[in-house]
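re the bet — no i am not wrong, look at it urself. input seq straight from the record:
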Amino acid sequence: MPDVAFLLVIFFMITATFAATKGLEVNQSMQQEPGADGQDIVQLHVFADHAQLDCSPVEAGEVAGRLRSILSRDPGRPVVLVVEPDVRYARMVSFYDELVALRRAGLFDDVQMPTHGDREAYARIWDVDPFLDRCRR
């Protein structure tokens, strides 16, 4: 009797189909709901010699006022700080500290900062760096 049970277990293990996850289904609709000015994020992009806030030049002391005016027109947009690899640490921290002070004041929820690995992954997926090429569109 144990022989038959063992053979049946083996038979059902071999003939059964296993439901393996082959990937996640993602709805990639082309119609997105952008913000009021056509963008869905507020991007502060810091380069070694200049910085851009939503594709307009900005300096470290000007970020607070400009960001307040952008978010007053379209509140709820996430704030993303993108820093190029050649930027000095002190320069990045000056912009980051200004954003953190605005977040603590309740202007927005959080500062998101993609890593260079994230950017490389996005570039492999879309064949373009979405943060660098955002202002070229």
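see?? The helical segments are 2-15, 63-73, 89-104, 116-126. told u. also Confidence is low (pLDDT under 50) at residues 28-38. so pay up
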